[in-house]
Design goal:
about 300 residues; alpha/beta; Arc Repressor Mutant, subunit A; D-Maltodextrin-Binding Protein, domain 2; 3 domains; five-stranded mixed sheet; about 40% helix; elongated
Length: about 300
């Protein structure tokens, strides 16, 4: 038994939550992975994982072993990385997940610069507004906005985006221009963004003179994808609240008109998120550094 390989296999099962996901991320047969863990358990003389037909749970001994060996694996990978950085440019596949409008309006327009600097990195971009399982889906990092509650993930701030409330000129001609947020309750049609996490409409948020308010007005239509949400606003289906970087072109050419500008909510924070226990490869490190440098100005619209 190669103990180091077996320890890495066991750690990935713990992180992925089952053998199938772990085997996929390690690119090895499920049977091979299971055999490695069994050999490790036999070598240690303890049961590390409790297996049933439906799930895998970590025993108390397994959790203790994982925590101690995870530190060793990270230190070993840091040593390997330090030598690789000194000799080589970052290379290999990098899997990144990002929301629809952020991909279209912020990340993708900036990527030519990144790929010119790091031509040996092969980027796999997953674009959706749904939540992903970073370990189970074998994703290196995600770019997301808003509040983050999962303490098992590392979230590094990469900028803030302004929010705007807007509608088409035709809509405003038909229904009138609200002078203050409370008027949205008086017959206005809203197109809400629906969270993919809980299926609920995200309330409209407003702020003035330090006073925050939220409006959960019944909407005409709900949309759970950011590009489609903007398209619904452009179609005149109702009032939307969205990112200024997404609505910017339509606001500049007059297809949309910003309303309630004096009540703009506080900027929306964005983060790059990655698993706490996963080692940062050289390619992921340089990608995060690049995000920290270029994203803030692009999110707030200072760059095209």
């Amino acid at each position: 038994m190669d103990q180091l390989v077996a320890i890495r296999a066991f750690a990935r099962v713990v992180e992925a939550g089952n053998f199938t996901r772990a085997a996929d991320t390690l690119d090895m047969p499920n049977a091979t992975l299971s055999k490695l863990v069994q050999e490790l358990e036999a070598y240690l003389g303890v049961r590390l994982l409790q297996r049933t037909t439906r799930r895998v749970t970590v025993t108390a001994e397994g959790q203790d072993y994982y925590e101690k060996t995870a530190r060793i694996l990270r230190e070993l990978e840091d040593v390997d990385t330090s030598f690789n950085i000194a000799r080589n440019k970052p290379r290999g596949q990098l899997r990144v997940d990002v929301g629809g409008s952020t991909a279209r309006d912020v990340l993708i327009p900036a990527l030519p610069d990144f790929l010119a600097i790091y031509p040996d990195i092969r980027l796999e971009l997953g674009v959706s507004d749904r939540a992903v399982d970073l370990v189970g889906d074998n994703v290196d990092c995600v770019i997301r906005g808003g509040k983050l509650d999962d303490s098992s993930l590392v979230a590094r701030p990469i900028g803030q985006a302004s929010m705007v409330t807007c509608a088409t000129p035709g809509y405003l001609k038909q229904y009138g221009v609200p002078a203050y947020p409370e008027e949205l309750k008086n017959g206005h049609k809203l197109v809400s963004y629906v969270s993919t996490l809980n299926g609920r409409a995200v309330p409209l948020r407003f702020e003035r003179d330090g006073i925050l308010s939220e409006f959960k007005v019944e909407h005409r239509m709900g949309v759970n994808e950011s590009n489609a949400h903007l398209a619904a606003g452009l179609a005149g289906l109702g009032i939307i609240q969205t990112f200024a970087y997404a609505a910017g072109p339509a606001l500049r050419n007059g297809s949309l008109v910003e309303i309630l500008q004096a009540w703009r909510p506080a900027p929306y924070p964005f983060h790059v998120v990655y698993p706490q226990n996963r080692h940062l490869t050289h390619r992921l490190r340089v990608f995060i550094d690049w995000l920290l440098e270029c994203f803030p100005s692009r999110l707030d619209g200072k760059q095209p």
